[in-house]
Design a protein that fits this description.
The protein has 373 residues and is of the alpha/beta class. It has 13 helices and eleven strands. The chain is 49% helix and 13% strand. The protein starts with a helix and ends in a 6-residue tail after the last helix.
């Protein structure tokens, strides 16, 4: 409250108190007027500062991911921060840190848990056995579309996230477009062609598939794939199309299977302490943007980017992009059947009914028009 304001209010009070006396009213003594004046000024002062105390404290979020800033995920996270900022009335701000600036790709779940970052982008399949339930979304020939697949997966996984990712605040889950094999040394047409090859798998499910087919897994994060193929440490990779070009993996591969073999599951998660320290209005802003609808927005944006990569690879010299015949596709589906049992066993150990959970997932994917035929 400024000095001018206080003097103005004091004058108004004196007039009020003076006007309260008159021929028909008892006179207010000077001392009484002084006491009443102080009391009224105190009330006015309290009223003038109350809104400042009611204003939410500003919360600044460190948002971390591990792909390049040129990846579509960067804009998705920037848009997410902007939406939360708007819905919080400007009291939640944030900065997105790309390209493993705050930590390695494999560590992003623990980074959110431990508060190294406040919101992180996680590939659960990078840590085999740790998140078996959400691994259902990685199964071959299950999800047909990035947008609907993201919505269907997220709507299904929400109740399981409370169990499987209980030490973070779960935000949303999504997938990229269905993808397949890319290799440096030879065409992979039939399941038996993987035998003897060194493959960098996208996640734990594809790692199990490679092993079952007689191949050897070479573990690495996405930013390291080009290097391991270029050095001959790996012969091929399972990777989505647009990212193949973005990471420069098209420069070290030649043969590309154009088939919807698998998808990869991802999640956004938040540090629990950061979330719990927010006001109710701020929590509501976060919750509004941690939704199935937002999962579809993120999945669709990324999906369009990946789908556009097919034509880019086809246009490059020295590349062979090939589709599978119906018989070849049937052979891959049959070879992938044991992966469902492997997932079921892991889900059962995690304390859920795998048959019921899979039926729920398929129903959810069908609802969002993303269940593969």
């Amino acid at each position: 409250m400024t000095q001018h304001f206080r003097l103005e209010r004091a004058g108004q009070l004196d007039n009020m108190l003076t006007n309260e006396t008159g021929p028909s009213k008892p006179a207010v003594t000077k001392r009484e007027r002084h006491v009443m004046r102080k009391a009224c000024l105190a009330l006015l002062l309290a009223a003038s500062v109350t809104p400042a105390f009611a204003q939410d404290k500003t919360v600044d979020l460190k948002v971390s991911h591990w792909v390049p800033a040129s990846h579509p995920l960067q804009k998705s996270l920037e848009d997410w921060v902007a939406a939360v900022n708007k819905d919080s009335g400007g009291t939640i701000t944030g900065k997105v840190f790309p390209a493993q600036q705050l930590g390695k790709a494999f560590d992003h779940y623990d980074m959110a848990r431990d508060g190294i970052a406040d919101v992180t982008y996680v590939n659960p399949g990078y840590q085999p056995g740790r998140f078996p339930i959400i691994g259902a979304g990685e199964l071959p020939f299950l999800i047909s579309d990035a947008k609907g697949g993201s919505e269907g997966l997220d709507a299904w996984y929400r109740k399981y996230a409370e169990k499987e990712m209980k030490d973070v605040k779960y935000c949303l889950a999504f997938v990229h477009s269905p993808s397949s094999f890319h290799s440096r040394t030879k065409k992979i047409v039939m399941p038996e062609d993987v035998k003897g090859m060194k493959i960098r798998p996208a996640h734990a499910t594809m790692a199990n598939f490679v092993t079952a087919l007689g191949g050897t897994n070479v573990q690495s994060s996405a930013p390291e794939v080009r290097d391991i193929i270029e050095r001959g440490v790996a012969d091929g990779v399972t990777f989505p199309w647009g990212s193949l070009v973005l990471f420069g993996i098209d420069k070290v591969t030649k043969f590309h299977m154009d088939a919807p073999l698998y998808t990869t599951t991802f999640v956004f998660v938040m540090n629990k302490d950061k979330y719990n320290a927010m006001s109710d209005k701020q929590k509501a802003a976060v919750d509004k943007n941690c939704s199935t609808e937002m999962a579809g927005v993120v999945g669709e944006h990324w999906g369009k980017f990946e789908d556009a990569g097919i034509d880019k690879v086809k246009a490059e010299e020295g590349h062979e992009v090939y589709k599978l015949t119906p018989d070849q596709t049937a052979a891959w589906k049959k070879a992938a059947e044991p992966l469902v049992k492997t997932w079921s066993d892991g889900a059962k150990k995690a304390g859920i009914d795998p048959d019921a959970a899979m039926a729920e997932l398929k129903a959810s994917l069908k609802k969002y028009n993303a269940l593969a035929e």
